[in-house]
Write a structure and sequence with these properties.
globular; about 15% strand; 2 domains; 3-stranded antiparallel beta sheet; 14 strands; alpha/beta; Aspartate Aminotransferase, domain 2; about 40% helix; binds ligand F0G; Aspartate Aminotransferase, domain 1; single chain
């Protein structure tokens, strides 16, 4: 008999979590104005709000923390991290930042101006936020298959080259500071971009003299999918695939809280010295001196080790198989989920789950609240609330997909927890016909409203 698959690690430290009663949860979520971001973590049993900064560090990462050098300038931790980033990505220059959006803030301060357009695959909300904050426009050029949750295209993060070239033709090069490719594409469901697509985007960008920047939060998961599903990469080590991916980019922003497997951190890396120099000014202004940029020495040490571990096949295989385990369970209960399963999360298709609910009543948010009430499982809405209002008309934007994301922290939960999540969602699915009303907004912020929005039941 073939031996079954098992995790590539064992557990050394544990953290207790607690169940609650439905009655308690009803009171807590009402007090939180039906916004899951407002719950305290002790009101949550299984927290799938995000895979960002929620991973478990390894013994090697914790021991690297002790060796952190907290010198203001030129610490050994900085040099270790810079050397690791160069070895893993191939980029010459590197700036640490305190997280991914800070990297966006610094790099975009150097590159994006009013009236610019930034094409890419579905931009993440902070990326889009940083573009729109500068009165520029993000243009989504993702392939159409990404918006069909039943399409089994293996690389649904891909950029549609025709859509991209149309933008490159329509606007002068001075108004396109760069093309942003998000690997994997979080907004379209943690979907990977193929190496072929990365190569073709790079070729097209070169033809028009435009830079390519990767939003790289989950670059290692992207490389894993290339290895598994793209011809010619089966035998190639993940680290080599990663180097090839970045060889098609000019710069990267990184949220280290994902594939760096640390609780806080980010960075920018690039080939061009001139860009490094101009971004350095903003780094010092917003983040800190160029050799720490918002990170402590111990955190830079842990990140360097995390980048090594996060690009190992056995780790990635354990991680992505767990995500697929949850996906398969949900599928066995006929729950509509985005396929193929993403790298960091399972995305439940709320429009197919609750087809009768009007979208103005925030279908995905309604489903996320129901899941919390059912079992204390916290997911997150990726739908109309997150899509914000149109900056010009102030009308709600209705994105192509209305999803509840169940993001799985790295090395934190077991498959038993995944079983609880799956059954909780099944129970909600079984009573879906009774869910006839959603929510309306009581108050909201002008930008990125989903974090603080207050809701009431319709
Ligand atoms: N880019 C992508 C693709 C992301 O998923 C995130 C964060 C960021 C940039 C910003 O990085 O949080 O370190 O400032 N995503 C988290 C999530 C918040 O839950 O998906 P950050």
């Amino acid at each position: 008999m073939e031996l079954p698959f098992a995790e590539s690690y064992k557990i050394k430290v544990i953290e207790p979590i607690h169940r609650s009663s439905r009655n308690e949860r009803e009171q807590w979520i009402k007090k939180a104005h039906y916004n899951l971001f407002n719950l305290s973590s002790n009101q949550v049993y299984i927290d799938l709000l995000t895979d960002s900064g929620t991973g478990a560090m390894s013994d090697c990462q914790w021991s690297a923390m002790m060796l952190g050098d907290e010198s203001y300038a030129g610490s050994s931790s900085y040099h270790i991290l810079k050397e690791t980033v160069k070895r893993i990505t191939g980029f010459e220059h590197f700036l640490p930042t305190h997280q991914g959006r800070a990297a966006e803030n610094v790099l975009f301060s150097a590159l994006v101006k009013e009236g610019d357009v930034v094409p890419g695959n579905s931009h993440f909300d902070t990326t889009k936020g940083h573009i729109e904050y500068r009165k520029a426009t993000a243009i989504d050029c993702t392939i159409d298959e990404a918006f069909d949750t039943t399409s089994t295209h293996p690389f649904k993060g891909n950029i549609d080259l025709e859509k991209l070239e149309k933008v490159l033709k329509e606007y002068p090069a001075e108004r396109i500071p760069f093309i942003v490719v998000t690997v994997t594409c979080n907004t379209s469901g943690g979907q990977p971009v193929s190496m072929r697509n990365l190569r073709e985007v790079s070729n097209l960008a070169k033809k028009y003299g435009i830079m390519v920047v990767y939003d790289s939060a989950r670059f290692a998961e992207n490389a894993y999918f290339i290895k598994r599903n793209e011809d010619g990469y089966k035998e190639m080590p993940v680290k080599q695939i990663v180097r090839e991916m970045f060889s098609h980019a000019d710069a990267m922003t990184m949220s280290s809280k994902k594939d760096g497997i640390v609780n806080m951190g980010g960075f920018i890396a690039m080939q061009d010295e001139e860009l490094f120099n101009s971004a350095s000014v903003y780094n010092i202004l917003f983040e800190g001196f160029v050799t720490y940029g918002g990170m402590s020495g111990r955190d830079m040490n842990a990140l360097a080790q995390g980048l090594e571990e996060g690009t190992e096949f056995d780790y990635l295989d354990t991680r992505i198989r767990q995500v697929a385990y949850l996906g398969e369970k949900l599928k066995s209960f006929n729950i509509p989920v985005q396929e193929p399963f993403g790298g960091h999360a399972i995305f439940v298709d709320a429009l197919r789950f609750l087809p009768g609910l009007p979208r103005e009543q925030f279908t995905a948010q309604t489903l996320a609240v129901e899941l919390y009430l059912e079992a204390g499982v916290r997911g997150v809405e990726i739908g109309t609330l997150m899509a914000d209002r149109d900056p010009v008309t102030r009308e709600n934007r209705y994105p192509n997909l209305e999803l509840v994301r169940l993001a799985i922290p790295r090395r934190v939960y077991t498959n038993n927890h995944m079983d609880v999540v799956a059954v909780a969602l099944k129970n909600v699915y079984d009573r879906r016909d009774e869910i006839k009303k959603g929510f309306e907004i009581v108050s909201e912020a002008p930008i990125m409203r989903h974090f603080t929005v207050q809701l009431k039941r319709v």
